[in-house]
Amino acid sequence: MTRIALDAMGGDLSLLATIHGIDYFVSTYNVSDVSFSIFGDAVEIEKRLSEFTAIKRSAIEIHDTGTNVISGSEKPATAMKHGSGTSMFEAIDSVAKGQADAVVSSGNTGAYMALSKILIGTIENIDRPALVGVIPNTLGKTVMLDLGANTDCSSIKLTQFAMMGNAVATTLLGIKFPKVGLLNIGTEASKGTKILAETYDALSGCKSINFIGFVEGTDVTNGVVDVIVTDGFSGNISLKTMEGTIRYINSFLKSGFSSGFVTRIGYMLCRKVFKDLKDTIDPSSHNGVPLVGLKKIAVKSHGSSDFVGFANAISVAVNLARSSFVKSVEDSLCELSYAA
Amino acid sequence: MTRIALDAMGGDLSLLATIHGIDYFVSTYNVSDVSFSIFGDAVEIEKRLSEFTAIKRSAIEIHDTGTNVISGSEKPATAMKHGSGTSMFEAIDSVAKGQADAVVSSGNTGAYMALSKILIGTIENIDRPALVGVIPNTLGKTVMLDLGANTDCSSIKLTQFAMMGNAVATTLLGIKFPKVGLLNIGTEASKGTKILAETYDALSGCKSINFIGFVEGTDVTNGVVDVIVTDGFSGNISLKTMEGTIRYINSFLKSGFSSGFVTRIGYMLCRKVFKDLKDTIDPSSHNGVPLVGLKKIAVKSHGSSDFVGFANAISVAVNLARSSFVKSVEDSLCELSYAA
Fold first, then answer.
1. How is domain B1-129+286-323 classified at the CATH fold level?
2. B131 min Cα distance to partner chain A (Å)
3. For residue A234, what pLDDT is reported?
4. What is the spatial distance between Cα A280 and Cα A68, in angstroms, rounded to a whole number?
5. DSSP secondary structure string, A85-139?
6. Structure confidence at residue B338 as a pLDDT band (50, 70, 90)
7. What letter does residue B260 receive in the DSSP assignment?
8. Total Cβ atoms within 10 A of residue B32
9. What is the pLDDT of residue A161?
């Protein structure tokens, strides 16, 4: 039995997405032997649960944390001081205490990172977990990290990210000896900052990873690499620029298609192509990424994710809990500690 | 008469794009009273020129620099030491000496920046010019700077970028009192680095610009702001991620449309929408951006631009040469020097 702890109150849609998401996971994903510890307002949870039929009550445990929640604007430091008793804190703590195998939350990212770090702890040689993303590319998927948890990064940190990204691509995507690139503003070795040059040298000396050198923003989606390593500032800017560009093109095409009778007919005939594209790039189908570098599994679901996205985040948590993910990350970091 | 100096040897396509580009500009853009000083290999230039008919020979002066060119991989420092006599150096120098009103090159960006700075010089209070881009957004166009010329930026530099971006949006796009945003990983004032917080404070106190606060990567293309200010590292990553995302979607749709008879018919019926999208986001139609902060006008054309793109870069140079662009940038920086 895989036991998943869920912060039912996190995210923009809160209970509307989380409870529906559990039901959707149970009814759509073909995964057995999963139980859920739901943390949140018991009265509201019961009310929402009564609307759904797929979830077996025997697979659920409700932990009442009342209306104690960590808001989206709460600073990580405040969350660490006063977070005890909130749905997010208690859900993470249940994993820390071994009462669950993985936790999922759509709540405040900074608070989630900080609380996971304190309660669960990071693996040896890792100061702070990283936020990793899985992005569609022309040939498959790209793992990218960090996406916003670590804005200032030393070359040691970036080298750790490369190791961790390597483990994510291997474990989560099943890619053997993934190609790892370091994000820069040009591919020539002379380009970029001093920290990037140091990281380039460090990674060139790592035998356990397939480092192919510097990559550019255009390489995030073209499949040239399986793993893109960057600091949390650039990673966040890159990911959000991509989201914005997708929305821009979407809105352009939408208004174009509805501009005339013939184009509308044309759209009807090729809408399957757009559905396929939507399914591929839809954030929901990629929702749920582990905080990499923790001793146990904590999955971050996007703050704006709906029930479909939340269900996907649950499936990521289940898969990781059943894999050797944490050990893979630990093992991949061994080379680093030898080198240090 | 507006006199444009052209580096005929720069860019991936070199003479193939530049000479054809001049012809395309003359035959397609409805602009009179323009003359061209072409710098490069005179024999090759003559050969290419003989293939085109739109360019009047009386409007052309060829300056033979033989095969002396600055390669794409040349470091800026080397270009400054040994650049004299190359097509790029001499084209820039002709503007510096007042023999031309603006220069256009598709060559090595770093070398172009460095040579322009040395030969033409920067306006008061500006250490180094910035690379600015004009990007399509849902409501119109966004001016973004810096795009890669200045990787490490102090808050003073970022504040200067805001002033210069403001001048570009006003002069080049005709936007009155443009909305200016500072790129960050969240819109809350507490987000990001110390330098960004300092810049936020400085810009909040500037009366001459309409500063609306922090913006995110998603805001590059949604029209929330007219000007996006960022350091050259993040700006470059953002721009290239956008280019990559557009290519990704394009390739996805292309392969989807050709996957069956019905979708092919559908595509035929709505292909006008795709043509409109292509025209809007095509780098060629946005090619040519000024190096902002110089005492005279130097326009950078993309290294991979074709003749259509190069023609557009020429038109940007002509428009700027006929505008009060440099004075606008100087005036916009006045407030800064008073405040300093």
1. Isopropylmalate Dehydrogenase (3.40.718)
2. 13
3. 96
4. 36
5. TSHHHHHHHHHHTTS-SEEEE-S-HHHHHHHHHHHT-BPTT-SS-EEEEEEE-SS
6. very low
7. -
8. 8
9. 94
B53 or B26, which is more confident: B26
For residue B335, the model assigns a pLDDT of: 61
* Residues B259, A273: C-beta atoms closer than 8 Å: yes
Is pLDDT larger for residue A314 or for residue B186?
A: A314
> Taking 60 as the threshold, does the pLDDT of residue A135 lie above it?
yes
Mutation for A interface: B233, B265, B281, most A CBs within 10 A: B233
Give A277-315 pLDDT, tens digit per residue. 877 777 667 789 899 999 999 999 988 899 999 999 999
**Residue B30 pLDDT > 50:** yes
- Residue A265 near chain B (CB below 8 Å): yes
Query: In Å, how far from its chain's centre is CA A307?
Result: 16
Q: How confident is the model at residue A339 (pLDDT cuts 50, 70, 90)?
A: very low
A1-124+285-324 is classed in which CATH architecture?
Answer: 3-Layer(aba) Sandwich (3.40)
Nearest to B151 among A185, A236, A270 (CB): A185
Distance from CA of B50 to the nearest CA of A (A): 37
Task: For chain A, give the percent of residues with pLDDT over 70.
Answer: 97
**CA A61/CA B290 separation, integer angstroms:** 63
Q: Which of A219, A252, A257 sits opposite B244 (nearest CB)?
A: A219
The CATH architecture one would assign to domain A130-257 is: 3-Layer(aba) Sandwich (3.40)
Question: Is it true that B1-129+286-323 and B132-257 share their CATH fold?
Answer: yes
Within its chain, how far is the Cα of A69 from the centroid?
A: 21
- pLDDT of A330 reads 87
Domain boundaries, chain B: 1-129+286-323, 132-257
Window A:277-306, CB contacts with B under 8 Å: 277, 280-281
Tell me the C-alpha distance between B273 and B264, whole Å: 14
Tell me if B236 and A185 make a contact (CB, 8 A cut-off).
yes
Closest residue in B to A240 (Cα–Cα):
B217
Cβ pair A262:B248 closer than 8 A: no
Is the omega angle on the peptide bond into residue B33 within 30 degrees of 0, that is, cis?
no
B273 and A259: CB-CB below 8 Å?
yes
| Spatial contact of B52 and B24, defined as CB atoms under 8 Å apart | no
**Of the partner residues B183, B220, B241, the one whose CB lies closest to the CB of residue A220:** B241
Q: B132-257: what fold?
A: Isopropylmalate Dehydrogenase (3.40.718)
Probe site for chain B from A144, A152, A220, A245 (most B CB atoms < 10 A): A245
| A265 residue type, one letter | I
Q: Which of B73, B249, B269 sits opposite A266 (nearest CB)?
A: B269
ipTM: 0.85
